[in-house]
Each structure stands twice: as structure tokens, then as C-alpha cells.
Design brief:
By secondary structure, the chain is α/β, with parallel strands linked by helices. The chain has a single domain, classed as NAD(P)-binding Rossmann-like Domain (Rossmann fold). It is built from eight helices and eight strands; from the N terminus they run βαβαβαβαβααβααββ. The protein has helices at 14-25, 37-51, 66-80, 98-122, 146-163, 166-170, 198-208, 213-225, and strands at 5-9, 29-34, 56-60, 85-88, 128-133, 173-180, 233-236, 241-243. An eight-stranded mixed sheet has the order 3-2-1-4-5-6-7-8, sandwiched between helices. The N and C termini lie far apart (34 Å).
Length: 251
């Protein structure tokens, strides 16, 4: 998957930026978006110094807005002619704004996946990877953030369901999920007033510990390199990194 064209959403900072930089180091071209225009431009300037003007581009985009997201994706196609890797990373944790949480964490992930899927299934060269960033909360309940947890469960279910589709397999498209535990990014900082139970949240976070972004990037690269990752869900914590085993009933 090296030397490809990649899209990363929510990449002005945090995990999205770390993913973007990891892809650039592999020799990929990356177009990333974020709603934070000022930080996005700053990140673009810094990355262009290290990787070249033509290899990375920032475009402002609010993934909650359907037309804006579609226009962003089409601009990437216009610039680079294709998209080989789609990383739907944008996300928030805010139980006080649960509709916003669902719109960004789930609805936008579905939209981004469908944009990439439609492109990948209709182009002449088969293959491609859609990597949807969920969370450890996507495979287990978390009492202090039910709406966030529901949105991340939805990402896992959506991704695994599409991965089963015969056309996806025929076109050699991989749809996978990344489920990190608590990572030292802005989404974790300042969560006290955005969850149901500050002390409960702190207790759970302390029990797991905080990962650095490099740890999650390592998991991302493992999924990229695994040509058999379609339908798989990579979990990563400070001490564990492997695919989650689902016990699905036979229908």
C-alpha cells in the first residue's frame, strides 16, 4: 500500500496528524481535512517542509455537511486522480451534544466510506482500503459516555457489514476498523464537563492509561500491511495490539 493516494479526515492535530505523517513517510500522497482551518494550514505548512509541496494538501471541511464533504472528496480526485486509502478519523466525545457526536463519529464515517467505496468500486484498477477509526468503546460498553459508545459501535457494525458484501470482496476493497483505547490527544483533554460522571471517567482512564499517538499509528500500519484485513477490527491499548475476535451466531 505504499506510493498511494490517501485521505485523512480530522487531521489538523492528534491522531489524524500522526496518521497523515506516517502515510507520508511511507511515500504516499495525503490530502487531509479538518474544521479547524487555522491549525490545518499550520500543519500543512509544517508537513510540506518535510515531505514536499505536492505530496500533502490541507482542505477545510466540516464532515457533518454532506455537500462540503462530497466537494472535498471530489477535489482530491481532481488533484490526484484517485483515492487508494480513506481514513475516516474525525471524531469527538461530548455527551452534552449527543446528536453532534453521532453526526461526526458515525454519520460522517458512513458518508466518507460511501464516497470512497463508490470511487473504488467503479475505477479500472481494483483494490483500496477504507479504514474507519472507532474506539475500544466500539467493542465494549462504557458507562460515562453512552452516546459516544453507541456511535463507535455503529462504526464497527457498519464496517464489518460492508466488508461481507460480495462486490467489496470481488473488487479487492478492504474495509477495516481501528479501535484504540485512551490516547493522549485533545479529544481526551477537558472531558470533565462532557461525560456522565467525571470521577468515573478518570477512574476508567487511569486503569487503562494513556497511549502516545505513535502506538496507535503502529496499529494503523499493521492494518495497512495486512492484505487480509477486510472486515477486521484492530484493538490497541498500552499493552495489547491485535484483532478483536467476534463470536457471531450462525444464521
Amino acid at each position: 500500500m505504499t506510493g498511494k493516494v490517501a485521505v485523512v479526515t480530522g487531521a489538523a492535530r492528534g491522531l489524524g496528524r500522526a496518521f497523515t505523517e506516517a502515510l507520508l513517510k511511507r511515500g504516499d500522497k495525503v490530502c487531509f481535512c479538518d474544521v479547524d482551518v487555522q491549525q490545518g494550514k499550520k500543519t500543512e505548512t509544517e508537513l510540506k517542509k518535510n515531505f514536499g509541496d505536492d505530496n500533502v494538501q490541507f482542505l477545510p471541511c466540516d464532515v457533518r455537511k454532506d455537500q462540503e464533504f462530497t466537494d472535498f472528496f471530489n477535489r482530491v480526485i481532481h488533484k490526484y486522480n484517485t483515492v487508494d486509502i480513506m481514513v475516516n478519523n474525525a471524531g469527538i466525545m461530548d455527551e452534552n451534544q449527543w446528536r453532534n457526536t453521532v453526526d461526526i463519529n458515525l454519520t460522517a464515517v458512513i458518508h466518507g466510506s460511501m464516497l470512497a467505496l463508490e470511487h473504488m468500486r467503479n475505477r479500472s484498477n481494483s483494490g483500496g482500503l477504507i479504514l474507519n477509526v472507532s474506539s475500544l468503546a466500539g467493542v465494549m460498553p462504557v458507562s460515562f459516555c453512552p452516546a459516544y459508545t453507541a456511535s463507535k459501535h455503529g462504526v464497527v457494525a457498519f464496517s464489518r457489514s460492508w466488508a461481507l458484501h460480495p462486490e467489496v470482496r470481488k473488487k479487492r476493497i478492504r474495509i477495516a476498523c481501528l479501535c484504540p483505547s485512551f490516547t493522549d490527544t485533545d479529544i481526551i483533554k477537558g472531558t470533565d464537563d462532557r461525560v456522565h460522571g467525571t470521577e468515573l471517567a478518570r477512574m476508567v482512564m487511569n486503569s487503562y492509561g494513556l497511549m502516545v499517538t505513535d502506538r496507535v499509528t503502529e496499529a494503523l500500519l499493521r492494518v495497512l500491511d495486512d492484505l487480509d484485513s477486510n472486515g477486521k477490527v484492530m484493538m490497541v491499548t498500552p499493552t495489547f495490539m491485535d484483532y478483536h475476535i467476534f463470536h457471531d451466531p450462525k444464521l
